[in-house]
Specification:
It contains four helices and 16 strands. With 279 residues, it is α+β, with helices and mostly antiparallel strands.
Amino acid sequence: MDASQHAQIKLCLVSLIEDIQVPARETGALVSVDVVEGQFVTAGQLLAQVDDRQSKLDKLAAELERDAALAKAEDDIEVRYAEAALAVATAELARAQAIEAKSPGGVTQQEIQKLRLAKHRDELQIDRSKLEMRVAKMNAEVHQASVQAADDALARRQIVSPIDGVVVTNFHERGEWVSAGQPVFQVIRIDRLRVEGFLNASEYSPEDVAGRQVIVEVPVAGGRSARFQGQVVFISPIVQAGNKYRVRAEVANRSENGHPMLRPGMSATMNVVVKSQVR
């Protein structure tokens, strides 16, 4: 049968793994606050909204400018007109050259030169019209970048939760002014917690406990105790007074009647499974 040896660490402290002060990313008035203290939230969930009316107008203007540039980029009327004019100029030049070939002097060289110039002008007009279409397309791309920048500005005015957790503090209410970088909420992760304590270096080496499974026991209401499973994730390289070094584990939490059983600040006993052998 399997037998396990445990290194018992008493007076361990339960603490948070993630404790985040969620800031406003842009300055403005809070037009809505969508969560309350104690509410469970998910990563990406909207917590509050900073006034974004100007950003919406900026996006609308950029979209209109982009659409106008796209319409111009797709409008080939000038190109088709120039091509038709070139066809006429080419035909007139050919007719004049044919007359001159049959009846020398029937068309003056000056007239032929004018017709050649007209044909060349129409050729250049085609190139110019195509260039204007390409420029309009590039302008549309510039305005599309402005649309994307406006989208980013709108997103930056949404204050969202970076993690799954619990809102423990609302620093501001609806209608208050916030500055970029100013904390608006405190959100903590509660589904996994950190448990830390000290092991005697003369009894257990870091190799004995590194990456090992742990069982954490804490007293709860009603004179009961609850156990939680986890794993050692960090061993301090520093040996402190009393020849002890710090051991940290991460533990999966669970709830009872909608409330987390393991809470930051609790004192716990951690049992580290250091050896398994067959008898």
